[in-house]
Design brief:
The complex is a heterodimer of chains A (424) and B (550). Chain A is an alpha/beta fold and 424 residues long. Helices cover 35% and strands 13% of the residues of chain A. By secondary structure, chain B is mostly helical. Chain B has 25 helices and nine strands. The longest helix of chain B has 19 residues, at 426-444. The chains are: A alpha/beta (424), B mainly alpha (550).
């Protein structure tokens, strides 16, 4: 019988799940217990990465690598942290978790245009007309997601959009975009009559199977497979991972109780369910050509601070921090020089990225800039080194090579090397 | 069993070419014709047949009329045929009806619209680059295709263009590739790569950084082309918006900027080299008086004895209609990548050039060939003709293509008759289409460079089709919709007649007996008769058969 049963799911299961809308409330508690059961397994060895993307390019000189006493220093003071480094006074909650997090202060990434910089930081490759390189979430989806057979939801989720292209790894590794509230476009089952959907899928199978059997190649089957996955997703218990609203108010509050906090909380729920890569696009731009200090102090930093600190605490409490890498960055840093509008402009020559978790060393400042912050005085690092470090932490072999559509071999993380001070 | 099924349909529906499906040996001995008697088409058929004989494959039978008309509509006008056109064509007894329909569709306004969409996507991608006018480029292309301007002149305009991005839409091709800092060595790299790839079918971009690994092209080739573009820059104009108190984007232009002398580039060993403008061996004066882009346009479009621009166009269009070009990829021609049918490609190029780069004539030739008229069903005797498995295409059956986003959208409109409901103005309808396409394309991703035969469907795309507003509207059966017209048509009283109408509308064919039996069983369990038809139509529009062009 080739009815409409989605792969990996019995028809009975499917129907009982869909039987009535009113069963959903009861179902919700089942989802949760199901999730907790999964989480116990996850804790042991499911590696994951959460990328916090600061679109527009954040002024890292005011966040992670302050320059008190320099003309470029700006308004903020550094404070001591739980780690062996100082950070901005406007990140007090993160400061308390800095024993788990580190800062690479010697990023030198040459691309100071938004699009080119985003591409470079996400892929470790500079844009090249011959090929579209996969964003790193797609690489992790390809390497880790494909092996997680129990995962019914996509293995690369982008909360809040962005996340770039899967490039030559193909659309099945594209970022799966949800909005800040976890809404997935066109996957809302509330208005769907399960009996009607069952009929639709049964008729669909009749027509599709006819075409598949008509000797015209693989497209027919490929189409059917994608639909099977989509139905699987619509009806999966793992969809509960997107439902941040199910969390207690107290938990939400521990992440700051704001939009970014909820996005971080969703990221934790997704990782707990087995999603290996989550990208969270910070809600609010960092392209601060004007009025940088007020915007940071009053808007951006308090949100970032509570959201990241909440995540780190929660991961730690759940025993997940040792398996979950966290990176916080944008496409570049911002000019050490403060411009006439009390803003900072694009700057890729010397800037910082925050990174931690998944067994990487915490509490360390890696590399160093000069007194004015406009030059690196230590070894410098490229995005490939960053992603190689993450790959190491996620146990993705560094000698992995992917092949572009034109048959050209592409080294993992553009051949970058793990940053020594962060590993071992 | 499947073959028997389709054979039966062919027997019922095919009139002019009915004799061909019955036996492969008959096919091999009988001259195929769509009704057109152009000697070039004869030549193409012979050349393709030589490939079949050399590789000992027997071609698939001619596609039945239902399969063929759907394909022709999708390829020429960008959407499936409306149900009444299908019925009309199937019942037409004229032996020359295929060639007549080809002529008719080539002169349809949707032909212009279709090729404008296709070329806009090829030239600047589906995600419009910053400060580039998609509307401007479209207008330029629309006028070019509507007047059937010679392709070499269209290319000349785009290569040599200067000016305001809406007043002279031809500038947008190069404009879209110029981003970032004009003083950067990278500034003209993307434009160099795209221009050579799209108009000349040459992938010189690998020689940006090193000599070509598989042919004699040296690194200076890229920089020779690049030199032609060095007098080019974009100028972005802003205007002050009193409402926001900020400067906003106004317009952009493609402008001439002084540049003379050689360009410098680095070899892998660090040695610095120089290059001057060089078009496939023809150098031009690198002095300041030379307008380099005009020179390049002249060399490409008028003085190239090899007609590289024409050849690249022929190869791309053959790929458009057949699913695969004579080379793979279609835009990577050169000594390292020989064509599957080199003599045929050369001859088609010659004839295309002789015709005055007549793009309509080329489309007419290809659609009238035997290969274009074969079914996409393969069989034991030609299953080795499988380019998707890496084989050289022999064109012994049609290759199945995936509908492009625009084709899918416009086909959904046709199948639901939304385009005839008369709701709203043309502009409003276009606006709606743009909005939906944006949504759709965001979900699809920018895959305009994928081969048309590749299915790159994703879960969000399936969700959009299953649960999105367009299919929802299509199956709502509101007055004016196709579903409504079927259900309220007094001539279609019984179930099979209505099911048949829905099949013809969505898939352009009749249901098989076994499909009817199965579907009837499911439909019987529906809460209401209306729900049964709605759900059937949903299934038809969501099916693999709907979304592919076969």
């Amino acid at each position: 019988m080739s009815l409409s049963t989605p792969a990996g799911m019995s028809r009975r299961h499917f129907l009982s799940h869909m039987a009535t809308g009113s069963a959903m409330t009861l179902g919700a508690t089942q989802f949760l217990s199901h999730l907790q059961a999964n989480a116990a397994e996850v804790k042991r060895n499911q590696k994951a990465c959460i990328l916090v993307w600061l679109g527009g390019g954040a002024p890292t000189i005011d966040m992670w690598d302050l320059k008190p006493g320099s003309k470029n220093g700006g308004e903020f003071k550094p404070i001591s942290t739980a780690g062996d480094l100082q950070i901005s006074e406007h990140l007090p909650n993160i400061a308390k978790e800095m024993d788990s997090l580190s800062v690479v202060r010697a990023m030198s990434t040459r691309e100071a245009d938004h699009n080119r910089g985003s591409y470079f930081m996400h892929t470790a490759y500079v844009p090249n007309p011959t090929v579209v390189h996969p964003t790193f979430g797609s690489v992790v989806s390809y390497e880790l997601g494909a092996k997680r057979k129990e995962l019914e939801i996509p293995s690369f989720v982008s909360i809040g959009g962005g996340g770039m292209s899967p490039g030559f790894l193909g659309m099945s590794h594209a970022p799966f975009v949800v909005d800040a509230r976890g809404n997935i476009q066109n996957a809302n089952m509330d208005s769907v009559d399960p009996a009607r959907l069952g009929n639709r899928l049964e008729m669909l199978a009749t027509i599709e199977n006819g075409f598949i059997g008509s000797n015209r190649g693989d497209i027919g089957q490929a189409h059917k497979d994608v639909y099977g996955k989509a139905v699987n997703l619509m009806t999966s218990q793992q969809m509960a991972a997107f439902k941040v609203d199910q969390e207690d108010a107290a938990v939400k509050q521990s992440y700051g109780g704001h939009q970014f906090g909820n996005m971080m909380l969703m990221a934790r729920r997704l990782v707990e369910t087995g999603v290996p890569f989550v990208e969270v696009r910070f809600p609010g731009g960092w392209d601060l050509h004007n009025d940088v200090f007020n915007t940071l102090k009053n808007q951006r930093l308090p949100m970032l601070d509570t959201g990241i600190a909440g995540l780190v605490r929660d991961l730690k409490a759940r025993g997940m921090l040792d398996d979950t890498a966290i990176i916080c960055m944008g496409e570049f840093g911002r000019t050490p020089r403060i411009n006439a509008n009390v803003g900072r402009d694009h700057w890729a020559a010397s800037w910082s990225v925050m990174v931690g978790g998944a067994g990487l060393n915490g509490g360390v400042a890696v590399g160093e800039t000069n007194q004015d912050g406009d030059r690196i005085v230590s070894e410098s690092y490229l995005p490939g080194d960053l992603w190689a470090t993450v790959s190491h932490a996620l146990r993705i072999p560094l000698d992995t090579v992917h092949t572009s559509k034109r048959g050209r071999p592409m080294k993992l993380a553009n051949g970058g090397q793990p940053i020594k001070d962060l590993i071992g | 069993m499947r073959r028997a099924r389709f054979g039966l349909i062919a027997a019922l529906l095919t009139v002019s070419v009915g004799a061909f499906w019955q036996s492969n040996t008959v096919v091999a001995q009988t001259k195929f014709t769509t009704g057109s008697s152009d000697p070039l088409i004869e030549y193409v058929n012979e050349q393709i047949r030589l490939g079949w004989e050399d590789n000992e494959v027997t071609p698939s039978p001619t596609a039945d009329d239902a399969e063929w008309i759907r394909r022709l509509y999708l390829d020429l006008v960008g959407h499936i045929p409306p149900a009444d056109k299908v019925e009309e064509f199937l019942s037409d007894k004229d032996e020359g009806k295929r060639s007549k329909l080809i002529d008719q569709l080539i002169d349809d306004p949707d032909y212009v619209r279709n090729f404008t969409e296709i070329w806009t996507n090829v030239l600047i991608g589906r995600n419009t680059p910053d400060r580039t006018s998609r509307a401007g480029l479209r207008k330029f292309l629309r006028e070019s295709f509507a007047r059937n301007r010679p392709w070499n002149e269209v290319v000349y305009d785009m290569v040599a263009a200067e000016g305001h991005f809406e007043e002279n839409g031809a500038v947008n091709f190069i404009l879209g590739q110029l981003q970032g800092n004009i003083n950067s060595e990278e500034y003209h790299v993307e434009a160099t790569a795209r221009l050579t790839r799209i108009f000349l079918g040459m992938q010189v971009q690998c020689t940006q950084c090193h000599n070509h690994p598989f042919n004699e092209w040296k690194q200076d080739q890229f920089w020779g082309f690049n030199s032609f573009l060095r007098q080019t820059r974009r100028i972005d104009h802003d205007k002050y918006d009193p409402k926001t108190g900020q400067n906003e984007d106004d317009y952009s232009e493609l402008a001439f900027t002084d540049f003379s002398g050689p360009v410098y580039y680095e070899l892998r060993n660090g040695l610095v080299q120089v290059a001057i403008p060089n078009y496939l061996g023809t150098e031009i004066d690198p002095g300041g008086e030379t307008n380099r882009r005009q020179e390049l346009a002249r060399l490409m479009c008028h003085d190239d004895a090899e007609h590289t621009v024409g050849k690249a166009y022929v190869n791309r269009m053959w790929g458009h209609f057949m699913g695969y070009g004579f080379t793979r990829p279609i835009d990577d021609m050169g000594p390292h990548n020989p064509a599957s049918h080199p003599e045929l490609l050369d001859r088609l190029t010659d004839e295309f050039v002789k015709s005055g780069y007549d793009t309509k004539q080329l489309a007419r030739w290809i659609c009238n060939t035997e290969a274009y008229n074969l079914t996409s069903q393969f069989n034991r005797n030609n299953e080795i003709d499988a380019p998707s498995a890496g084989e050289v295409p022999l064109f012994s059956h049609m290759y199945v293509k995936t509908m492009q986003a625009e084709q899918l959208y416009d086909s959904l409109l046709v199948a639901t008759a939304a385009h005839r409901s008369g709701a709203g103005s043309f502009d409003k309808a276009e606006e709606q289409r743009e909005r939906w396409l944006r949504d759709f394309l965001r979900i699809f991703g920018g895959n305009e460079e994928d081969e048309p035969t590749l299915f790159s469907g994703s879960i969000p795309q399936a969700l959009l089709m299953m649960n999105g507003p367009l299919v929802d509207k299509a199956t709502s059966a509101e007055p004016g919709s196709y579903l409504n017209s079927v259900l309220s048509d007094s001539r279609l009283r019984n179930d099979p007649a209505r099911v048949r109408s829905l099949f013809v509308s969505a898939l352009g064919r009749n249901p098989t007996a076994s499909e009817l039996t199965r579907l009837k069983k499911t439909m019987a369990t529906s809460p209401t008769p209306l729900a049964a038809y709605q759900d059937l139509y949903w299934a038809l529009l969501n099916s693999n058969e709907f979304i592919v062009n076969h």
